[in-house]
Amino acid sequence: MITIPYLTAVSTYFSYGLLFAFGQLRDYSRLIFDWWTTSDLHGYAPICLAHEDFYIRRLYHRIQDCFGRPISSAPDAWVDVVERFSNDNNKTLKRTTKSTRCLNLGSYNYLGFGSYDEFCTPLVIESLKKFSPSTCSSRVDAGTTSVHAELEECVANYVGKPAAIVTGMGYATNSAIIPVLIGKGGLIISDSLNHTSIVNGARGSGATIRVFQHNTPAHLERVLKEQIAEGQPRTHRPWKKIMVVVEGIYSMEGEICQLPEIVSICKKYKAYVYLDEAHSIGAIGKTGRGVCELLGVDTADVDIMMGTFTKSFGACGGYIAGSKDLIQYLKYHCPAHLYATSISTPSAQQIISAIQVILGEDGSNRGAQKLARIRENSNFFRAELQKMGFEVLGDNDSPVMPIMLYNPAKIPAFSRECLRENVAVVVVGFPATPLLLARARICISASHSREDLLKALKVISKAGDLTGIKYFPAAPKKQEEEKGTIKLD
Amino acid sequence: MYVRALPTTDVNRNTEWFTYPGVWTTYILILFFSWLLVLSLFHCSPGIAWTIVHLAHFTVTYHSFHWKKGTPFGDDQGIYNRLTWWEQIDNGKQLTRNRKFLTVVPIVLYLIASHTTDYQHPMLFLNTLAVFVMVVAKFPHMHKVRIFGINGDQ
Predict the structure, then answer these.
(1) Which of A218, A251, A442, A472 has the smallest CB count inside 10 Å?
(2) Cβ(A163)–Cβ(A155) under 8 Å?
(3) Contact yes or no for A213 and B5 at CB 8 A
(4) pTM
């Protein structure tokens, strides 16, 4: 539920209309210009259709310096951002050899494993020397080492399921496994704000796709009832399989899924639940076991639990956890397991060590400290931002907090102003978010100290004042005045 | 003054912006301000200004709603490449509130333009032609119809 000031909505539409109009004018003048010049590519078809890259050429390229900034150090709480310059108004950007040390508010470094860790990194280097960076083979040929077997067992125990399968890439986990689980004649009901990997996997499976309103169990129930009553399109036969796909934390909203209601509805109508915990595993819950632990849902009720290791564990790859039969079936049928190269062995070791730190099995309580710190940091930061008058989305305890910008001109303004003050933020616009709802997405890490957060708040407040994004009235500072009067007495 | 924006179930990023609050008001305000702009630039009578606004509106909306096909970004892998914007909105469902609003606006513009020019030729002829083409293009029966293969696929 996003609250927009009406004037901002109208001005945002105006701005986009103006940008599109100017883009079209430039396209027409380019067309006329190119009429007179000949090209040497006679007989070749154009690479993209005429208007498919309109958005990239005319809108994205104008503010390209805010996206894709290269970094030259590990993504810790502070990161070295490489400076770039452009001679042709952001059409091409050239890297320099200089870099600035910036506060990192953009990396998904939730538990601080993104840089040197005193327990994990020595073990990873040892594994690198023993095994080598790549297994150079798929899992079924020669790509399964003892570390891989240990990793799958470790992940299954951590998540709370009987068995797990691990693949080398998080995006490919979704897009390669959903087509294996469901096919033509099946029904996929996915949340309207699901990640592109799920959308691609669903489209690639050949099943019918229906969408329900974001995080609204009542609408999910209505869609389920309707679809079960209607059956398959045209033949009206009953569906072969129904799968409901939801995410633990939605990465663009920072909202936590309403899992208990959704699981009870799916049980009632006998649909399978596929939970994508990319952002929530390791980041929420008392021992970091994700949204099931936080909301008190029994893991046996969620049929397929998927997650990635790129966010909280500082590695790469993804996993699927489920019953032993399901994982056995996937090992025989999933192309990511049969044909893709297996996950790099040092990365697997990093994940195992990270899980051991989180559970306290390395002999210290650093894991519990990290989890407590990320919760504390997220709640403090969100509360302070809301007090300043920003519109911040997301639930309490979620380490992802988008600050709403709305107007397209504020996207580069906010990003560049923050970079000038040495704070690196990620801004997102259309088409990753809806047209109207551009935002700056802040990701809090357990390695941010209180001073880092205070500096970030100061810089964001200044940038917010300059760009005018404090859409809500700031909370009044009554308490300090009262303290003053009591002291005088 | 705040409005609430509920996320929609429309997966097509090209058309879902039309379901958020404030679009209708912005559309009407753009038309009104362009009328003021034309009046101040061309020093013409209000009727001629409304005629110019009506014909310009016809050109722009016909081109963007009924001629251009597909989406301006490549993320959706080209599944809408055969559909114009008008055929994409509301997932192809006909006679929704948005479609009714978009059909009424050119008609209201036509009435204002004809009234303020006192129904004289040649403005009346041009305005009538424009509104006829606009309204016929928006009929439910014209969904995915390409007359004589104009604007059809290769």
Answers:
(1) A218
(2) no
(3) no
(4) 0.89
